[in-house]
Amino acid sequence: MTAFLTTRRNLLAVASVVLCAPHVAKAQSAWPLTITDAIGRKVTIRKKPEAVILGTGFNLVALSLILPDPVSMLAGWANDMKGDNPFIYEAFRKKFPAIENVPFVGNGQADGLSFEAALSLNADLAIMAMWQADSELGQRAIQYLDSVGVPVVVVDFNRDPLKTTPRDMRLLGRIFERNEQAEDFARFFETRLERIKAKAPRDTGPLVLMDAFPSDVRGSWAIGRTGLGELITLSGGRNAADKNLPPQGGQVTAEYILAAEPDIYIATGSPGGTYTAFSIGPGVDPSEAQRSLGETVKMPALAPLKAVREGKVHGMWNFFNAVPLNILAAEAVATWVRPELFDDVDPAKSLAEINERFAAVPFEGAYWTSLKS
Length: 373
Prior knowledge:
By secondary structure, the chain is an alpha/beta fold.
C-alpha cells in the first residue's frame, strides 16, 4: 500500500500563495481569481465556487474549519473518509443531512476517479491532495478536469505540513472568500508551531520509531523524515528511519525494528483497527485506544523493545497526515519526545479551542494515547 495512506496517503496539495494582510486579500478577491497551488500550477477560477469536487473526502475537514456549511459546496466527492473514518462522516451527516445525497466520484486514490461522474456534475472547482497529484494517474485526472473546464487546485497537508498547512488554509480562504476565518486558523497554527520551535533543543534527543499501522500479518511501516515524521525532529528527537529509507519511509522487517532499538515508540492507526489492531481516532473511546495500543506492542517484533519495556509507548490517529489538524499531532509528539521541555503544551486544550472557534462539526474521540509506564 502506497506509503500506508501517506503513509497510505501522501496527500493532494493546494496553494503556494502567501496572504500578506487582510486588506490585500480583499483587493485580490475579485473574480476571476488566479492562484498558485501547492505544486506550483497557476490556476484561474472564474467565479466564487458553488459546486466543488473533492478528490479526497478528507479535504472536507479543511473546508469545515473555514466554512459554516461546507457540505452545501459539494457537487461530488471521494468516499475515502467515509470508509476509513466513518464516525466523521456520521458526525457531518447528523449536522448536514444533505451529505447523503452528494455523489461519490472516486475512492480517494488517483486511479479511482470516475471521469464520467465528474463530467456530469457541472462542477466549477476540484480540490485534490498532494498524494494524488504526485502520481501519473493523478496528473491525468488533473489534465482531464482542466480539459473539460473544471479548474483543479492541489493542497498539501502532509508532505511538508508544518510549512504548507497555514499557507494552504489561507489559500482556501481566498478561494471561498473566507479570508478572516482562514487567517485566524493559520495564526492559531503558527503560534503553536512557534512555541514548539522556540523550545526545541539543539542537542541530541531520544531515538524515535514512528510505525504506521503495525500489523502481525503485514509488519511495520517506518515513517520517514517527511509528513508525520517531521514532527519527531521538530521537537528535538531523532528519527530511527531518517537515513536508510526513502523520505516517506518504508516497509521494515522485525530485524530492522529490533536493531533500531528506539527510546520511544509511536504507532499510528485508525478507528476500528481497519489496518491494524490499534484502534484510534474519531469516535474511539480513550480506554479502547489505550487498550488496543497495549495489545499491539505485544507483537513479537515490538515486545522486546526497550521503549516498550520502559513504557515509552504512544499512539496517534494516522490521518493527521491528511488534515490541517496536524498541529495537534505536533503538540502530542513534543510532549512525548521531550516532556521536560513541553510540559506547558496541551493538545487536548488546543483541540477544544479548534472545536469552539473553527469547527463546523466538532472533532470527538481519542486522537492520541499513551501507555502508562
